[in-house]
Design brief:
- The chain has helices spanning 8-14, 21-34, 109-119, 146-156; strands at residues 41-46, 64-70, 79-80, 94-100, 120-129, 159-167, 170-177.
- The longest helix is centred in the N-terminal third of the chain and has 14 residues, at 21-34.
- It has a single domain (19-177), classed as Vaccinia Virus protein VP39 (Rossmann fold).
- It is globular and about 40 Å long.
- Helix 3 (109-119) links the parallel strand 4 and strand 5.
- It is built from four helices and seven strands.
- By secondary structure, it is α/β, with parallel strands linked by helices.
- Helices cover 24% and strands 28% of the residues.
Length: 178
């Protein structure tokens, strides 16, 4: 709900009944800027369980194969993994790996970044909240800012940063494999 700040941006970031509008805006900007609608792409969403919304509908393209991965069955999940740090895919299997509003619920950021890098051929898009209240699902471990995102993607993942920035209540990291 609206707390001290009586603004639309504050509402977007604090409302927990749906995937907030800023994250949706950011995934659409990523799609428009970085994905070629004419290329065949395999895209994986890490943490795809539809709690308050999911990304699948934004990747509707006959040339794209979109797979949702999570640790439990549910809406938006195509593949279930019991281990949040080991996925049942070959190295370099996906052209694009995305993860939105998920890393804050992961205890071992190093391990998940390494697994995301292992399975991607090319692009990684990550969005993590930086200012919202605690929201355990089932745990809530982190808030990440651009310096932390840059460290995760460059130093841990050995990726080339394309973008790393704040966007309202989110930190956005876009990187590619080199």
């Amino acid at each position: 709900m609206l707390e001290k700040h009586n603004s639309f941006n504050s509402f977007i970031c604090k409302n927990t009944k749906f995937m907030h509008g800023n994250c949706i805006k950011e995934i659409n900007l990523f799609i428009e800027k970085y994905l070629d609608k004419n290329n065949k792409l395999k895209i994986l969403d890490v943490g795809s369980y539809n709690v308050n919304g999911c990304f699948k509908k934004y990747f509707k393209n006959p040339n794209w194969e979109f797979i949702g991965l999570d640790i439990k069955e549910g809406r938006g999940v195509d593949v279930v993994t019991k281990d949040p740090y080991k996925y049942p895919f070959l190295d370099n299997y996906f052209d694009v790996v995305i993860s939105g509003n998920t890393l804050e619920h992961i205890e071992d950021l190093h391990a998940i970044i390494m697994e995301i890098v292992r399975i991607t051929k090319s692009l990684v898009w990550i969005s993590v909240p930086n200012t919202i209240k605690e929201h355990k699902y089932p745990i809530d471990c982190w808030r990440i800012f651009p310096d932390g995102m840059r460290f995760l993607l460059e130093n841990i993942g050995k990726l080339k940063i394309l973008e790393c920035r704040l966007s309202l209540c989110d930190t956005i990291g876009i990187a590619k494999k080199i």
